[in-house]
Amino acid sequence: MTDLFQHEVTKTVHYLKKGKIILYPTDTIWGIGCDATNNKAVQKVYKIKNRDKNKSMIVLLSSVEELPKYIEKVPLLAYDLINNAVSPLTIIYSNAKDVLKNVRAADKSIAIRIVKHEFCSEIIKKTGKPLLSTSANFSGQPTPVIFSQINEELKNKVDYVVGMYQDTIVSTKSSTLIKLNENGTFKVLRP
After folding, report:
1. Is the pLDDT of residue 188 over 80?
2. Is the dihedral of CA 15, 19, 22, 27 positive or negative?
3. Is the pLDDT of residue 1 over 70?
4. Which residues contact 29 (CB under 8 A, 6 or more apart)?
5. Which domain covers residue 134, as residue numbers?
6. What are phi and psi of 8, to 5 degrees?
7. Residues facing 135 on adjacent strands
8. CATH number for position 105
9. What is the pTM of this model?
């Protein structure tokens, strides 16, 4: 890992631990995020995006071993889906634990993605907390594919903009989205 990488990880972790909002690269597109366990920070993300409070956001974890911390009962199929996914995969689970009540939907479901992006994974490990993630745009606006397409006003509303990967296209689309039921059935919501 380069000095720049370590510097950016350290700085980003510092902001996250203080309950701040970051603009950062993910394994898909650029995202706005915060510590998913910090209710004040989560509410600030909703406010920045002008997002309806009834619309939940995605939570990023660094490994499948973390799932049982946040899901009451992880269906075995989830592990197969995650381990065999060829592109980023977000799964909506129907039984989130209370620990993440500020990011789960009204029906207690929660959308979680295990990231395979080195930077995201590292900041999640260093904070020891799940990372809230939502696309880097105002609600209702087009989703930017690259950093240069992100609205300047939005950039100015976050506390920290990660200074790496700004010239890199990781993916040109959001993750695949699957709703996984406790009985092991699933439905693809976004291919």
Report:
1. yes
2. positive
3. no
4. 135, 136, 143, 144, 145, 170, 171, 172, 173, 174
5. 3-190
6. -65, -40
7. 31
8. 3.90.870.10
9. 0.93
**Predicted local confidence at residue 102, as pLDDT:** 78
Lowest mean pLDDT of 17-31, 49-63, 169-183, name the range.
169-183
pLDDT tens-place string over residues 72-84: 989 999 999 999 9
Residues in the chain: 191
DSSP state of 36: T
Amino acid at 62: S
Q: Which backbone phi and psi does 23 adopt, to 5 degrees?
A: -115, 120
Residue 61 CA to residue 43 CA, distance in Å, equals: 20
Share of the chain above pLDDT 70, in %: 97
Please say whether the dihedral angle defined by the alpha carbons of residues 101, 28, 44 and 48, taken in this order, is positive or negative.
negative
Order of strands, sheet of 89-93, starting from the edge strand that comes earlier in the sequence: 160-161, 22-24, 31-35, 131-135, 58-61, 110-114, 89-93, 176-180, 186-190
CA 187/CA 54 separation, integer angstroms: 21
Q: pLDDT for 118-133, tens place per residue? A: 999 999 999 999 999 9
| Contact (Cβ atoms closer than 8 angstroms) between residue 178 and residue 114 | no
Q: State the total domains in the chain.
A: 1
Tokens of 141: 């606006």
